[in-house]
Amino acid sequence: MPELTFYTHPMSRGRVVRWMLEELAIPYKTEIMSFGAEMKTPDYLAINPMGKVPAIKHGDTVVTEVAAICTYLADRFPDKGLAPPVDSPERGPYYRWLFFMAGPFEMATTATAYDWRIDDSNVQAVGCGRLQDVIGSLEQALSTGAHICGEQFTAADVLVSSYL
Ligand SMILES: N[C@@H](CCC(=O)N[C@@H](CS)C(=O)NCC(=O)O)C(=O)O
Fold it and tell me: What's the order of all strands across the beta sheet hosting 55-58?
């Protein structure tokens, strides 16, 4: 297997990727990056031009963004069963909730944390809607079973469960 390096900081979204890696039970090397200068060095900016963690390097393949990393890992290690088969009906909701967490969920929770104004004047144009809509959608999806899509625990559950 190609070498896998995980760039992270313990107090970061890297914890989601850490869970995914542990769930896969594959060997990997961890590079703890300090916030500030270390993430902005030319060497690390070559990994992630955003100068942020988490990131992974798997052989020559670099992946950044929590949801993308989890999706990539689930597909690269299909025998671990963390992604529904590509031709299964569950693949639709699987994509849906992965993107939902990376998009509307991230945006709505960040907006709430920093008091960004989402109200009647802009909610139609703001892609995440209101926080209660985002939470309500997840609650509804989780009310029918133990997992976010179908009977199987997937990378989408790692994301959802990490943030709820
Ligand atoms: N959209 C990114 C967010 C990454 C992010 O914002 N990481 C923060 C820590 S949770 C970071 O590295 N901040 C350091 C900085 O911006 O200097 C993802 O999903 O991975």
Answer: 29-32, 4-8, 55-58, 61-64
User: What are the residues whose beta carbons fall under 8 Å from the beta carbon of 138, sequence distance 6 or more?
Assistant: 100, 105, 148, 160, 164
Instruction: For residue 64, give the ligand 1 atom closest to its CA.
Output: 20
Asked whether residue 164 carries a pLDDT value surpassing 90, the answer given is no
Q: Which amino acid is at 84?
A: P
| Model confidence pLDDT, tens digit, residues 92-116 | 999 999 999 999 999 999 999 999 9
Two tokens, residue 88:
């299964």
Distance CA 119, CA 3 (A): 47
Sole residue written with tokens 């100068």: 51
Q: Report whether residue 35 contacts ligand 1, using a CB cutoff of 6 Å.
A: yes
- Break the chain into its structural domains and give their ranges: 4-80, 91-163
Superfamily of domain 4-80: Glutaredoxin (3.40.30.10)
Mutate to test the pocket of ligand 1, among 52, 70, 100, 110 (most ligand atoms within 8 A of CB): 52
pLDDT surpassing 90 at residue 87: yes
pLDDT tens digits, residue range 44-76?
Answer: 999 999 999 999 999 999 999 999 999 999 999
